[in-house]
Amino acid sequence: MNGGETTVGRVSQVNDKPTGEQSFVVTDKYCPTSASIEQRNQVKEVTVIYRGSSFELSSDAAKDWLLNDIPTGIQVANGGGAVAMPQLQSSAETLKNAMELYPNAQVFVYGHSLGSMNAQYAVSDLSDKDSSRIAGGFFYEGPNIYGILSPKQQATADALTKLNKLFNYVDSKDLVPIGYGSGKMSVGNVIRVNSQKVGLIDQHMWGGYEFNKDGSIKATKKGSLQLAKYRVTQQLSAIDMMRKSFMKSGGGLSRSEEIFLDASEAMAITQGMKQTINGEIAELKQMYTDGIKNAGDLWKTTRSNAESTGSHLSYGECIDALARGNATENSIVREPVREYEEKLAKATKISRNYDELLQKIGDSIKKQLETDEELANQIRSM
Questions:
Q1: Residues 204, 207, 208, CA angle at the centre, nearest 5°?
Q2: Domain Fungal lipase-type: where (predicted)?
Q3: Chain segment 70-80, per-residue pLDDT in tens
Q4: CB within 10 Å: which end of the chain, N or C, has fewer?
Q5: Residue 326: Cβ-neighbour burial (10 angstroms; 0-12, 13-18, 19+)
Q6: Residue boundaries of the structural domains of the chain
Q7: Which of 41, 63, 39 is nearest to 52 (CA)?
Q8: CA–CA distance, 28 with 104 (Å, rounded to integer)
């Protein structure tokens, strides 16, 4: 990432199974399956990524579509099926094997399209012990497979969803993610994304997604709140682990460590608050923008109707007649627009205030690391 400046992990395992499943196991440090148990025990974070369907004419595409996509789609449309398709079952084994290989790691799971179904099934098929190690599951543009799960699998999915660990992203303009009707249960919290209408394939491949300035996905107000809660929980958990690591060195926390941890907690909570209100502010801005446009349209319609009704009157006489009924450009357009613009400015200022606060907290953290080399080295070694 960032031209090679940032590393989020290393691909330690690539799977290309007879079922058509293609998946990748990413670890925080390179640690292949051949590594010793001592090395594998050192891995603290694992991400399992499931690839979506192949589109080219190939045996792999045939396996994806004929043996998995179409049969599972029929199961979803009919509200369930007796047995999960082969690729879903092999994907569950992939996740279990990864968790067994790296027994001390927290685990994240990702999947898009067919990969979304694989990921949904894999996390739902875990034992209670293994499911407690799931730190997050993110599924994109895949059908809702909740109905094809067994009661035990549904219970596992429900538990992880209630813990706010699973998120199922759906673009309502995409034709693929079926089965997410009102009141339907799902594997994960359904995050309905804000999107633009694009071509059929691009719509499915995230092409219509809208993003915030920080790169996060724009979602509805409810979705933004759920994602904010997850992000804050993850960050506070990481800070707590950092606190425990600092304490291992013996004694209490140093003054620098206390300042750093307090500032980091403030940053996490403030970011969460900003993300929470992003949806609110976006809706308010849209409402005020629409209000300004509607005011202009209303005045044009009012004026046009007056001219049609009083076709024997001059333009000035029509305007005077409207004014006697208190229908003026000032009352219909200027006053409402002025009010909308004031409210729009306030909403923008609230967002800007959060940005300024986050900048100050970030500067405080940066300053602390610059003035305390020992602390900076501790952070880098984690």
A1: 95
A2: 73-177
A3: 667 777 766 66
A4: N
A5: exposed
A6: 2-210, 255-381
A7: 63
A8: 12
181-208 CB burial, b ≥16 within 10 A, e <16? eeeeebbbbbbebbbeebeeeebbbbbb
Same fold, 2-210 and 255-381: no
Cβ(163)–Cβ(135) under 8 Å?
A: no
Confidence grade of residue 1 (pLDDT, cut at 50, 70, 90): low
Burial of 174 (0-12, 13-18, 19+ CB in 10 A): buried
Exposed e or buried b for every residue in 136-172, given b needs 16+ CB within 10 A?
bbbbbbbbbbbbbbeeebbebbbbbbeeebbbbbbbe
Structure confidence at residue 358 as a pLDDT band (50, 70, 90): confident
- Is residue 74 classed exposed, middle or buried when 0-12, 13-18 and 19+ CB atoms within 10 A define those classes? exposed
Report the distance separating Cα 149 and Cα 63, nearest Å.
Answer: 21
Encoded tokens for 335: 């006053």
Closest among 4, 85, 84, 94 to 51, alpha carbons compared: 94
Domain 2-210 in this protein, CATH class: alpha beta
Q: Are 274 and 214 in contact (CB under 8 A)?
A: no
**Distance separating alpha carbons of residues 204 and 174, to the nearest angstrom:** 6
Residue of 24, 44, 28, 32 whose CA lies nearest to 105: 44
Query: What is the rounded CA–CA span in Å between residue 154 and residue 315?
Result: 69
At residue 250 the predicted structure's pLDDT band, cuts being 50, 70 and 90, is: low
**Phi, psi torsion values for 107, nearest 5 degrees:** -125, 135
Residue 275 pLDDT greater than 80, yes or no: no
**Whether the Cβ atoms of residue 177 and residue 141 lie closer than 8 Å to each other:** yes
For residue 359, count other CB atoms closer than 10 A to its CB: 10
Could you tell me where the DSSP H helices lie in the chain? 37-41, 59-64, 70-77, 86-101, 114-124, 128-131, 151-162, 200-204, 221-248, 255-309, 315-324, 329, 335-371, 373-381
Tally of CA atoms within 13 A in the half-sphere of 211 that contains its CB:
6
Helical (H) or strand (E) element with 50: strand 45-50
